[in-house]
Amino acid sequence: MTTTPTVSRATAVAARATDLSKVYGHGETQVVALDQVTVDFRQGEFTAIMGPSGSGKSTLMHCVAGLDSFSSGSVRIGETELSTLKDKQLTQLRRDKIGFIFQAFNLLPTLTALENITLPMDIAGRKPDKQWVQQVIDMLGLSARLSHRPTELSGGQQQRVAVARALASRPEIIFGDEPTGNLDSRSGAEVLGFLRNSVRELGQTVVMVTHDPVAASYADRVIFLADGRIVDEMLHPTADGVLDRMKAFDAKGRTS
Ligand SMILES: Nc1ncnc2c1ncn2[C@@H]1O[C@H](COP(=O)(O)OP(=O)(O)OP(=O)(O)O)[C@@H](O)[C@H]1O
Ligand SMILES: [Mg+2]
Ligand 1, residues 24, 34, 49, 223: which to mutate, most atoms within 8 A of Cβ? Predict the structure, then answer.
């Protein structure tokens, strides 16, 4: 039996953005990618971020994950305010506490699949939990590909290596930018199911950008971005519910 966690609204916060703004450029070419966004990502919660292309999803995730600077506002991971950290400390925090699955997979071409999966732990001088890493590899169907280099893997396989790398060290929070975007629906469903189980059974915290209402339905909640702002939130989403909400936004966009 799978145990459903108590995702109480009072649960500790894994990451929080407060009045977060990010402006690119100046004057006429200025783009407000994030406009005073305030959002909590609670421990043991699976959040999907949705919104049209250019609405600020990747920017939000990169700023909260300490990968990108922001123009104003604040971000904390656990109890740590990112603005108080020096570069080296920020790098360390990212390495030790955060797992990433990028839109581009960012695998190192000279390393094998297995070496890519354990790289963050190798850099940190941490011993991988072999049993867990094997479980992740099996679930992602990568066992037969571990000695291959990224160029010898299909796009979907590379994506699965990137997912395995993020899960392998059991970070406090995992950020995924369309982590299943290049997978066929069966592998995608497996990865999403695994992410959901890691949230439900292990208390993992996951934040995932997606365009796919079915993928979003695996999450505990969906936040909707438009023009750099959070415009809606849905708890216990279903694919149909998310689709309806997206259609409503589209209709509004056309009439306004
Ligand atoms: N380096 C940059 N310089 C200038 N503008 C940028 C830069 N990066 C992003 N932007 C702009 O910021 C806005 C938000 O971009 P972002 O990448 O966060 O969108 P997104 O919601 O992730 O879109 P997509 O679904 O296409 O990935 C867009 O208008 C984009 O053009
Ligand atoms: Mg993006």
Answer: 24
This prediction's pTM = 0.88
Q: Which domains does the chain have, with CATH numbers?
A: 13-255 (3.40.50.300)
Helix (H) or strand (E) holding 166: helix 155-168
Residues 6+ apart with CB under 8 A from 6: none
- Report how far ligand 2's centroid is from the alpha carbon of 66 (Å): 16
Asked whether the beta carbons of 162 and 107 are under 8 A apart, the reply is yes
Q: How far, in Å, from the CA of 82 to the mean position of ligand 2?
A: 22
Question: The tokens 């990212």 sit on which residue?
Answer: 94
Q: Tell me the C-alpha distance between 155 and 146, whole Å.
A: 15
Are the beta carbons of 82 and 20 closer than 8 angstroms?
Answer: no
pLDDT digits (tens, 9 = 90+) for 42-85: 999 999 999 999 999 999 999 999 999 999 999 999 999 999 99
Containing H/E element for 193?
helix 185-202
For ligand 1, say whether the CB of 55 is within 6 Å of any of its atoms: yes
Contact 71, 37 (CB under 8 A): no
Q: With a 6 A CB cut-off, is 181 part of the ligand 1 pocket?
A: no
Burial string for 133-162 (b: 16+ CB within 10 Å, else e) reads: beebbebbebeebeebebeebeebbbbbbb
